[in-house]
TrEMBL record:
Record Pfam families: E1_dh
Keyword ATP-binding among UniProt keywords: no
Regions that span the bilayer: none
Acidic residues: compositionally biased ranges: 369-378
Swiss-Prot/TrEMBL cofactor(s): thiamine diphosphate
Stretches of the chain forming a coiled coil according to its record: none
Protein name: Pyruvate dehydrogenase (Acetyl-transferring) E1 component subunit alpha
A Gene Ontology BP annotation from the UniProt entry: branched-chain amino acid catabolic process
Length: 378
């Protein structure tokens, strides 16, 4: 007879299934998006950081314009522009330490470049030349992820594994509002919260999942409110306020690194350009809506703040533009060079030990290439 089988033994009652595990109030986001620029908080912002953000925004806007032009010239197969969303992209890169990892979506090429990835290498996937185009370990930037939200569970897995190993690493995973409708989003948040993994989820809510507006994706008060259902804090921030996005992201990264677990951040921004060069955005939104958001441009907001505080003059603005133009010229020149590609590279980085099927496919392709090189039989 076990102790629990003895008559009169103490049997603790489990809590009711509905009982909250924690007070949800501290997890709720603010009613309005957090802002810094144009508020009293701006006076406390580090001038050096603001200048770095500004230079990054100007460079990012030029990068987006040049990459879009390359699609029209046939040098890129597709480009998902982040014009209008540069504040989120640059702030995400600057909020991380060198040892941290960035998990970008297909629209976050600019964040990868701001993190240190070569601009041409960052576009290699979108050119159709390579699986990724850069070494993810070199800059701690995961491959650009085209399937919606599948990078989020990967970020959780890496962060959880790093903590188990004792590594002081935080993962920052970026996703669009459309990605929050995918199962991977919910699975990632649930695992992250249960494991208290050091992950920060940044949702760039740019208004549309291609042509589907947010109101047809969710009835939640905000996407940041979804955090409460998983047991993590939610933050709502003005995604065009670079200083605010950087502050909120930095707070969440510090919180995760200190063992506080994950945070879900929703940045309210807007996609000025079409979904990609293959999209006709005029079919689902009007010019007046786009023009309204142009009035809340992230570069103009930060430039105004810096100018008002005497931290930026015309010479400083021109220097930022000149640096951005030099980057664009180099990108344009190198993208106009035809790369030397080896079709056999298709099989190089699939498995550490190729499977029998992969070896069979590799041999078949090699035979076809050899036959082509020998020319037609006479």
């Amino acid at each position: 007879m076990t102790v629990m089988e003895q008559r009169g033994a103490y049997r603790p009652s489990p809590p009711p299934a509905w009982q909250p595990r924690m007070d949800p109030a501290p997890l709720l986001p603010d009613a309005e998006p957090y802002r810094v620029l144009g508020t009293e908080a701006a006076a406390k912002a580090d001038p050096g950081l603001l200048r770095r953000l500004y230079a990054g925004l100007v460079r990012g806007r030029r990068y987006n314009a040049q990459a879009t032009a390359l699609t029209k010239q046939g040098r890129l197969a597709v480009y998902p522009s982040s014009t209008g969303q540069e504040a989120c992209e640059i702030a995400a890169a600057l909020a991380l330490e060198e040892r941290d990892w960035l998990f970008p979506s297909y629209r976050d090429t600019l964040a990868a470049v701001a993190r240190g990835v070569d601009p041409v290498a960052a576009l290699t996937l979108l050119r159709g030349d390579w699986h990724t185009g850069y070494d993810p370990h070199e800059h701690r930037v995961a491959p650009l992820c085209t399937p919606l939200a599948t990078q989020l569970p990967h970020a959780v897995g890496l962060a959880h594994a790093a903590r188990l190993k004792g590594d002081d690493v935080v993962a920052l995973a970026m996703v669009g509002d459309g990605g929050t409708s995918e199962g991977d989003f919910h699975e990632a948040l649930n695992f992250a919260a249960v494991w208290q993994a050091p992950v920060v989820f940044l949702v760039q809510n740019n208004g549309f999942a291609i042509s589907v507006p947010l109101a047809k994706q969710t009835a939640a008060p905000s996407l940041a409110h979804k955090a409460v259902g998983y047991g993590m804090p939610g933050r709502l921030v003005d995604g065009n306020d670079a200083a605010a996005v950087h502050e909120v992201l930095s707070d969440a990264v510090r919180h995760a690194r200190a063992g506080g677990g994950p945070t879900l951040i929703e940045a309210i921004t807007y996609r000025i350009d079409a979904h990609t060069n293959a999209d006709d955005a005029t079919r689902y939104r009007g010019d007046s809506e786009v023009d309204t958001w142009r009035g809340h441009d992230p570069i103009a907001l930060l430039e105004h703040e810096l100018t008002e505080r005497g931290l930026l003059d015309e010479a400083g603005k021109q220097a930022a533009r000149d640096a951005a133009e030099a980057m664009a010229a180099d990108l344009r020149e190198r993208m106009n060079q035809d790369p030397a590609l080896d079709p056999m590279d298709l099989f190089t980085h699939v498995y550490a030990e190729p499977t029998p099927q992969l070896r069979e496919q590799r041999d078949q392709l090699q035979a076809e290439l050899d036959a082509e090189s020998e020319g037609p039989h006479r």
